[in-house]
Amino acid sequence: MPEQKVKGVMFFNPSSGMKMPVAEQDALQHAAAEAGLEVICVTGGLDCAGLIRRRVEEGIRLFVAAGGDGTINAVIQPLVNTDAILGVIPVGTYNHFAKDLGIPLAWRDALDVIVSGATKPIDTARVNDRFFVNNVSMGLYPELVARREEKGRDYPRWKARLFAALATLRKYPHIAVTLDSENHHEVIRTHVLMISNNSYDLSRLGIEAARPALEEGRLSVYWLPHVRRLALTSFVAHYLAGRVHSAPGFRSFRTSRVRVQSSKKHFPLGVDGEVVTMETPLTITIVPQSLSVKVPR
Question: In terms of Cα–Cα distance, which of 206, 199, 215 is closest to 255?
Fold first, then answer.
């Protein structure tokens, strides 16, 4: 446990991931307070951005997200393009952002990084007026998350995921959009469209696919043309085996800016794993070297 003291604020989301046992939650909050962090529990009505701005005015520069990727997304909104620093304690379900940065998944080790780690500038990206650190997804993924969350956080997660998968495949939503970038113009109809902050290593297996770097200054755009349900299972098999690039029809390109236009006025999106609805058109841009993050030395 860290002996040094820091001065900052930790936003702790106790409902993230698989839900930590109460004793473990208490231990985390106590250790964070001992390290010098003000602990604030994240609730539905919390104005996270407003609170961070007030703390910045008071001279605080370190802000810690203790939760999953959705919690991190909420905390970064007022931090991008400032001199404030983000710390991460990954207690979510997948913790993609933490894994990509090499942050330990054990919370005690992650707290050590916050106290004594190095500070690294990384890229973020922005969709309209919202920043993100991982990706924006359209099509099947937002539907999948929405159906999963219908069961609530107290419902067994594996059952919620199974229900969501079956309900999503039954509905099988697709989108029709126009993609415009500096070197690309295409009208596509797809079930799977993702735009990521930097590139994924798609040779890695399934959800373990990581981003080797977060400072390339480029977006990556991935999609699969409209296919029947059976063909989608073949794509999923390629994805889980780390052979996405050999999946029939799979497309991708890199850019610094892309505009997504649709005939629909509003669009459901997955933004860092959380479902939001935004007005179209969507303008998605890379924001290079715009966020400072605590990482292992």
Answer: 199
Alpha carbons 46 and 51: distance in angstroms, whole number: 8
Do 215 and 289 form a contact (C-beta atoms < 8 A)? yes
The SS3 of residue 10 is strand
Burial label for 18, CB within 10 Å (0-12, 13-18, 19+), is exposed
Residue 198 main-chain phi, psi, to 5 deg: 75, 175
Continuous H helices in the chain: 22-34, 48-57, 69-76, 96-101, 107-116, 140-149, 157-171, 229-240
Angle at 295 between CA 201 and CA 240, to 5 degrees: 25
Q: Are 268 and 100 in contact (CB under 8 A)?
A: no
Two structure tokens written together for 139: 């099509």
What single-letter amino acid sits at 236? Answer: V
Q: Using one digit for the tens of pLDDT, what is the confidence trace for 100-143?
A: 999 999 999 999 999 999 999 999 999 999 999 999 988 876 66
Q: Are 173 and 139 in contact (CB under 8 A)?
A: yes
Name all domains of the chain by residue range, CATH numbers in brackets: 8-116 (3.40.50.10330), 132-289 (2.60.200.40)
Give mean pLDDT, residues 62-75: 96
Enumerate residues 6+ apart whose C-beta is below 8 A from 240. Answer: 205, 206
Is omega for the bond preceding 281 within 30 degrees of 0, making it cis? yes
